[in-house]
Design brief:
The structure is a homotetramer of 243-residue chains. Chain A has 243 residues and is of the alpha+beta class. The first copy, chain A, is 59% helix and 12% strand.
């Protein structure tokens, strides 16, 4: 049988006084246990990616890996700082915790988006099977596969500096394309990312200059639909969960 | 047996010329089918919410519902416009499609966040069971339940204008708190929202003036852990999918 | 006669090695002198404002002053930290200096915008003279004075959370209205602010709920055109400088 | 003798009803005169710039001019649309006027910042005179000229995607460095730009890959202090105006 914990007891009747007590009572013991709990959880190691393509130069490929590692390095540092950051004096204007939270989101998204991008492209033998979830769901939610392509290109070319992503919106329960600004702005809440193309200028400007349409299409020509299909299967399983 | 569709065939060898053909060949027929497909899918109806609480005045409650309905109205208009927006001349500086996509994200997030918020609060009999997923997962990922409270308050007070949300990060595979700016900035990619408190000034300034800490704690005292537990169960099922 | 200082000498021929030398050679001595120079310059004191109006409740007025003082307090703290912040290891992902610079802009703008707003409104005897710069320039650049009003209202109602400002754009060399998001986004480079109305929800939601149009018009009815005329005179003098 | 125009008469006693009358009474006649007034004012022509430097490749230089012209083209289109955009039904969620205003700021800033950047660099004979305003003011407000360099580099390397700018802050009445995100975020209100270096990846990634420090220093080595001195003189004259 489970014990009952009334939230009234947790935060108390006199809201302001009680929460202060909670803060001081726990501040020593919990900050240690918190630190121990989180210390390992947030350490992320860079993965190895082969970018097999003739559409990008070797120098761009290796520079891109360097940038990716920079985000991981920053994210790990931020996570460690957040373990012990002062949570009792934050405000909406200026505090260490607040800055760390923004940088956490920025570097965390940058890390994952790069990993998704490196893994879902670079397949010179790219092909999509018509009875795959990939094909069927894009067809269902965009009208035709070509309509998805058209919308993906339109979204990609609309990016000032950021990402174009096809993913599953958990509220709409359908697949949509989104335009991400930088790494963390203009993102759908509850969005599981599936097809990711980097539209920062560092991905295309060296090899394509201002012709970002050719870059984008080159990436679309080498999408690894085997990797993408695994993500669609997960999205479909998520869709089942949310029914 | 499934047919094979090579992506080379789809987008062609001469990238620039082929994609143009694709565009013109399909532009008539598909824009119609696209429109039909999407027309109904995106129409969202406002839901009914009872905000049972003495911590907020009646006028704030009804004004809040009015704002919520405004976002739904805008979202439905945007969705209809996106069905037929010109996708062949977008760019990263100025185009109808680009503006619509930003407004889509803004109003879509605003709609869902408000629905999550209205549904997960306003329970005067709020209590959390210690062997619930809610309690156990917050304990596991934050150290203790009080550590989660402390971090949630710290995050909430760090919001300039926006939202504080506890949710499941699908990359880290753990529960974290995030600070959302406005409705669509500083959001984690792949984030399933679970505990949502509105930190726009319209929620608290009338009743609490600058004392947003008392507002935030009042909301935390009336969290509906039954509703939240259902979301945690879904997040746990999503976690299983992503293993 | 003036000495010549070649910039080649300053940063050296071998760019990377020299700049490092410069950094270490100066780091001790200059960080002290820098600190002394800046220490006083950035300390800003709150000003006294009487908000004489019946369009806003007393509680909103005093809460607003409290918020204003919070920004000044944060700005002064940030300025002090920036005096000695580590400038040799900044990057675009995560560094103390970078966070401080963003917070500097945010709090500095918030401080000045509030001061401009408090000073240019709250005149129950508001009247504008037709041969004033205020009237003539708004007429010249917007078509008619009513066109300025119309555009100002349109801009004000377009603000999600932020400010509507009439000012002098130093590039266009004309007066325009801008929509500022929060305190520091979507701002014109080279923009001298003249007529400022706060459109954060804390200014109107308590007294007007969702009817922000009535709030905005109430502010426009009590604009202090004497204060504004002084600003227009300065803008005109700036226009002369830029000819 | 000037006529007096009471603002009460302009906007009326019954705020809501009167403003509607004003709108309808003027909507026909003024929208025409407004259009005529603005039509020419906002048309901006690209300027010619010689980018004399060996620090950037020819391809980057010409691509950069192409991007610059794109912003001017967009800005001119936006200005024309704004002349006649519907101002009577704007809101903070979704309206044509609102989108146009954001795009106006974005493209206007991009245009001017590029012009400032093209004009203030690319001088292989770069040298700064010690009794110039440039030298004396940077020394006064940063401690030493080297301190300005150090802060400018720190700010430049902190940019994710955007600009580093030295300019005159009209509120602080001193020269400061700012970090601009993209083209219009994190900008100081009332900021006259003087020394501008583009830190978008399109300026350096092709020639310097991830070594943006070498790019930034190369730009600083070729700053055209004659052009910059003219801007400092204007800033000094503005400082006099604001006394």
């Amino acid at each position: 049988m489970s014990s009952i914990k009334k939230s009234d007891k947790i935060l108390g009747i006199d809201v302001n006084s009680i929460i202060k007590n909670t803060f001081s009572a726990h501040s020593k013991s919990t900050s240690n246990s918190l630190q121990q709990t989180l210390d390992e959880a947030f350490v992320h190691e860079p993965k190895q990616f082969k970018q097999v393509t003739e559409f990008l130069s070797e120098k761009v490929k290796s520079a891109h890996i360097e940038l990716y590692k920079g985000y991981i390095d920053s994210f790990n540092k931020i996570s460690a700082k957040l373990d012990t950051a002062n949570r009792s004096e934050t405000n909406s204007r200026h505090s260490e915790y607040r800055s760390l939270k923004f940088d956490e989101t920025y570097n965390l998204n940058a890390t994952w988006l790069h990993e998704l991008y490196f893994a879902n492209g670079f397949d010179p033998y790219s092909e999509i099977v018509m009875d795959s979830f990939s094909y069927m769901r894009l067809q269902r939610d965009f009208g035709t596969f070509e309509d998805w392509q058209r919308d993906f290109i339109a979204a990609g070319l609309s990016v000032g500096n950021g990402w174009v992503v096809t993913g599953f919106n958990m509220f709409l329960k359908k697949y949509v394309n989104i335009i991400v600004n930088n790494h963390s702005d203009d993102i759908h809440m509850g969005f599981y990312p599936i097809i990711v193309v980097d539209m920062w200028e560092h991905t295309y400007f060296r090899d394509y200059l201002t012709d970002k349409k050719s870059y984008l299409i080159s990436q679309m020509k080498e999408l690894n639909w085997t990797v993408i299909e695994e993500r669609f299967k997960k999205a479909e399983a998520i869709a089942q969960v949310l029914k």
